[in-house]
Amino acid sequence: MSEKTFLIRNVAREFAEKYLKPVAKKIDEENRIPEDIINKAREMGFFALRVPEEYGGPGLSLQESVSVVEELAYASSALAIMSVVSGDMVAYPIMRYGTDEQKEKYLSLLGRGGIGAFALTEPCCGSDAAAIETRATREGDYYVITGQKIFITNAPYADFFLVAARTGRPEDRHRGVSLFILDKSPCIKISKMEMMGYRGSGTSTLYLEDCRVPTSNIIGRENEGFKKIMMALNEGRITTAATGLGIMRAAFDLAFEYSNQRKSMGKLLIDHQMVQYMLSEMATLIEASRLLIYEAARASDENRSDLPKLSSMAKLFTAKSGVDVVRMAMQILGGIGYSRDSDVERLYRDIKMIEIGDGTNEVQRMVIIRSLQGRIRLE
Ligand SMILES: Cc1cc2nc3c(=O)[nH]c(=O)nc-3n(C[C@H](O)[C@H](O)[C@H](O)COP(=O)(O)OP(=O)(O)OC[C@H]3O[C@@H](n4cnc5c(N)ncnc54)[C@H](O)[C@@H]3O)c2cc1C
Fold first, then answer.
1. CATH superfamily assigned to domain 117-219
2. 149 Cα nearest atom in ligand 1
3. What is the mean pLDDT of each run of 10 residues along the chain (379 residues)?
4. How far does the centroid of ligand 1 lie from the alpha carbon of residue 125, in Å?
């Protein structure tokens, strides 16, 4: 870890310990993050991780972003995933493919503490993103967007949305999809959802009714949005995995601490061989996930062609390991771990998301095999 990464990580760790940890339970219960915390996170640049300094952001590499996200997730997965979506999945495609005008307007907005959302998934289709039905129709200098999006993180907090919409024919699949920047507007109706985990991150359904977007707000050319969306996902899978890393570490620490206090059959839990087995297994899965996540992040920072494969491997491995680690943590805490009084219960609900969001485990396996077959290329 470089000295810069070490310092950045410590800043995020202090923020998480001081502000996030005390309210993590409340965030989960109320399904919202208190405004003062959101405002502090804005000031810290957590919604603009990847935004270059010239636009007012911290200009972090992906490896540095991963270290921040892990620390935030250690205390609250909700703020961590908000940071992933806005600071990485929304910022990155604008940085990589946006026009100067788009960068000036939207990266600067993120740099000032604004929040972005990434709207791809629809009720019809999540894994099959090439089948999306939201329609963008050109009318003079505008596109008019109509459709429905679902499970959109950050939506109630967002100042703008990256929206994937169909500009071509349905049978053109991914070759008929474009990517737009849509400002917050009354044409977007937001309905917050009650999810099992990552509560507070604003997961919502969006109803888009005749939203008018200037043609200057398309990212890249018409019908060429899909690869840009995939690049955002390559990045996002790594930082989403980093939220899993934070959750796993939190679960491990709780289990380790408990096993050093709780006695059973005349000795501490940690002195029982079967508990030692679980703790050793958990620590190993955490380290292995971390190594894979950092290698994937390095592939992105170095613009390497193995990014899609490593990104999906990091996400898949962390998701599976995370579910195992938190399950073992709950096992070590026994009945108290299963109760609402324990943080492990929240972590258990949170970690499952990593097996679904940003592409399910099955989708990651598809990307891995296609990469191995040489069927996936970076744009
Ligand atoms: C908390 C949370 C936050 C989210 N945030 C966002 C967001 O900010 N923006 C956004 O756009 N989306 C977001 N999502 C959506 C997420 O990316 C999708 O839920 C995910 O891609 C899966 O899509 P789906 O739910 O439609 O499931 P489906 O695609 O319907 O899949 C259902 C099941 O079938 C399997 N399956 C599907 N196709 C195949 C196949 N070909 N072969 C084998 N198995 C298959 C899947 O793996 C899964 O197990 C979020 C989801 C959650 C839970």
1. Butyryl-CoA Dehydrogenase, subunit A, domain 2 (2.40.110.10)
2. 11
3. 88 98 98 98 98 97 98 98 98 98 98 98 98 98 98 98 98 98 98 98 98 98 97 97 98 98 98 98 98 98 97 98 98 97 97 98 98 88
4. 8
Q: Maximum Cα–Cα distance for the chain, whole Å?
A: 79
Distance from C-alpha of 64 to C-alpha of 61, rounded to nearest angstrom: 5
What ligand 1 atom has the least distance to the C-alpha of 119? 11
How many whole angstroms from 367 Cα to the centroid of ligand 1?
14
Chain centre to alpha carbon of residue 4 = 23
88 lines ligand 1 (CB under 6 A): no
- Name the pTM for this structure: 0.97
Contact between residue 321 and residue 291 where contact means Cβ atoms under 8 Å apart: no
140, two tokens: 């003079």
- 361 CA distance to ligand 1 centroid (A)? 9
- Please give the structure tokens belonging to residue 83: 């940071």
Q: Over the range 309-321, which residues count as b (16 or more CB within 10 Å of their CB) and which as e?
A: bbbbbbbbbbbbb
Domain 226-372: CATH superfamily, name plus number: Butyryl-CoA Dehydrogenase, subunit A, domain 3 (1.20.140.10)
Distance 264 CA to ligand 1 centre (A): 42
Ligand 1 near 116 CB (within 6 A): no
What is the CATH architecture assignment of 3-114? Orthogonal Bundle (1.10)
Query: What is the CA(129)–ligand 1 centre distance, in A?
Result: 9
**Class of residue 26 by CB neighbours under 10 A (exposed 0-12, middle 13-18, buried 19+):** middle
At residue 1, the pLDDT reads 76
Q: Please indicate whether residue 358, judged by its CB atom, sits closer than 6 Å to ligand 1.
A: yes
